[in-house]
Amino acid sequence: MKRSNRLVVLSEFFIENPRKHTQLPYFVELCQTTKSSISEDLDIIDSVLQSQGIGYLERTTGAGGGVKFIPKAKEEISNKFIDELIATLEDPSRILPGGYLYMTDILGDPKMIREIGRIFASRFADLDIDVIVTVATKGIPLAYAVASFLNVPVVIVRRDPKVTEGSSVSINYVSGSSRKIQTMVLPKRSFKEGSNVCIIDDFMKAGGTINGMVNLLAEFDAKVKAIGVLAEADDEEEDRVVDTYTSLIKITKLDMANKQIGIETGNYFNTNVEE
Amino acid sequence: MKRSNRLVVLSEFFIENPRKHTQLPYFVELCQTTKSSISEDLDIIDSVLQSQGIGYLERTTGAGGGVKFIPKAKEEISNKFIDELIATLEDPSRILPGGYLYMTDILGDPKMIREIGRIFASRFADLDIDVIVTVATKGIPLAYAVASFLNVPVVIVRRDPKVTEGSSVSINYVSGSSRKIQTMVLPKRSFKEGSNVCIIDDFMKAGGTINGMVNLLAEFDAKVKAIGVLAEADDEEEDRVVDTYTSLIKITKLDMANKQIGIETGNYFNTNVEE
C-alpha cells in the first residue's frame, strides 16, 4: 500500500479506536508494508493530530510496545464550543414552568453530545477510568460519548429494577431538590469490585442523585475518580451534597417572570480548580 | 499543507462528520492549498474508504456542489461482526429467570454499539431519515449510534412525562408481551410535523412497544420509514403487531430448564427480505 493510502487507513483506525493499544506488526500486516514505513506514517499522523488539536499518538517501545491514540480537545476549541452552547441556551424561550431549562434538543444532537464527551474525556484521560456510570435517562448519551473516547464500558443505574438484568443491588436516597425518597438499582453483574468509576450526568442541582450514585457504587467497592456534569444549577438556598465535580456550564439565573436566563462557564474552565 | 498532512486532516474530518455536505472552498481554506490538490486528495480518500469497506465520498458538482462522506459497512464485515455477536450471546449463563437473555453488557460497550449503529445506518442510508426515535431506556445508545452515522437528531419517547421537557403528547397502548396498559409520552417540541422517522430499539417480542411508538408518531404526522431492532424474539404463540422491521439477530430458543439458547441472524441478512 502506498503512503497516501496508508495515511487514510491509519487515520481512520485511530479515530475509530481511541485508547486502543495496538502493536506495530498489526499495521505492517494491514498495510502490507515495512515497520519503518509505518513508523514514519505514525510520525506524520501524530504531528497533524497535535497541530489540529485532536489529540496525539502515545508510543511505547520494547516487547509489547505499540501505539495508542489519545484524544485531547484543544483548549481554544473547547472554550469556543462552550461559548456557543451558552449562547444557544440563553434563549428565553427555553425557560420551562417550574424554573427548568429546556435542553432536550441539545441532548438529542449526536454531534453536540460527541463534542461534550470529547471535552470530558480530555480532562479525565489520566485517571485510569474503568467504567462510566450514569443514571437513566438523560445522562445516557453523554455517558456513551465520554466512554467512547476513553474506550471503556457504560453502566446505567436505573430507578426501577428490570427483569432482563438479573439480580441487583438497590439503595434508597433523598433527592436533593424534591426531598423525596427515591430508589436506585444496579445489576449485580454490572462491573468488577474495586473498579475506577467516572460518573456522568446532564444536570446537577443539590446533587442528591449523584450522591445516591456514589453511595450505591460504594456497595460495589468502586472508586469514584471523577464526576462530570454538563450543567450545574447555582442554588444558594440549598447545601450541595456533592462538592468535587466538574461542570461545563453553570446556570446562575432562571427568572421566569422576567424571561431572563444567566449561564456561565462551569468549573471545568476555572484556572485553579479543585476537582 | 503537504499532501500527507492533508490526507490525515481530511480523513479525520470525514470520519467525524458523516453525511455532512461540505463545499471544496472550506477544505482549500482549511488546508491552505488549491482546489485541484483537494480534488486529488478526495480521489485517494474515496478509493481507500471503498476498498476498506468503510463507505465512500459522494461528490456533487456545480454551484453549491461539494462532498459528503457516506458510511457504508461492507457486507462481509457486518456478517462477521454479527456471527461473533451471536457466538457471544449463545453462552447459557446469559439465560435469566423469566426467559430473558442478558444483553446489558453488550449494550454497555460503546464500540459494539457503534458497529451496530453503522450496520443499521448503512441499510437506512437512502431513506431520507430526518430523526431517530427510540423509547427509554435500553434502545437509547443504539439510537444515538445510528443517528451519528446518519447525521440526524435523536428523540426519546418516555414512559413518564418529565417537567423539564415542557408540554407533551401521550398515548396509552397495550404491551404485547405483558398485556398491560402502558403510557408513552413525547414532548410537543420534539420535531417538525411530517418528519421521516426511523425507530430503533434493542429488543422486540410481540412488537407492542414499537406499535405504541408508531401510533404516537402518527400524532405528529411523522412518516415511519424504517424500524430497526437489534434482537427479535421468535414467538410463535403471539401475533406480531409490527410486520415491517429490520432485525440483526433472532432469538429462536431460550430454554431455561436445559440451559439452551438458539440465536440466528435476523432478517437484515436475508437476501430477499421485504423491509
Automatic annotation (TrEMBL), chains A, B:
Stored Gene3D superfamilies: 3.40.50.2020, Winged helix-like DNA-binding domain superfamily/Winged helix DNA-binding domain (1.10.10.10)
Coiled-coil region(s): none
Single GO BP term: negative regulation of purine nucleobase metabolic process
Ranges of residues in domain Phosphoribosyltransferase: 106-251
Keyword check for Nucleotide-binding: no
GO molecular function: DNA binding
Pfam families, per the entry: Pribosyltran, PuR_N
Domain Bacterial purine repressor N-terminal intervals: 2-71
UniProt key word Lyase: no
InterPro entries, A to Z: PRTase-like, PRTase_dom, Pur/Pyrimidine_PRTase, PuR_N, PurR_Bsub, WH-like_DNA-bd_sf, WH_DNA-bd_sf
Keywords recorded for this protein, A-Z: DNA-binding, Transcription, Transcription regulation
Family: Belongs to the purine/pyrimidine phosphoribosyltransferase family. PurR subfamily.
Entry-linked PANTHER family: HYPOXANTHINE/GUANINE PHOSPHORIBOSYLTRANSFERASE, PUR OPERON REPRESSOR
Subunit structure: Homodimer.
Protein name: Pur operon repressor
Gene: purR
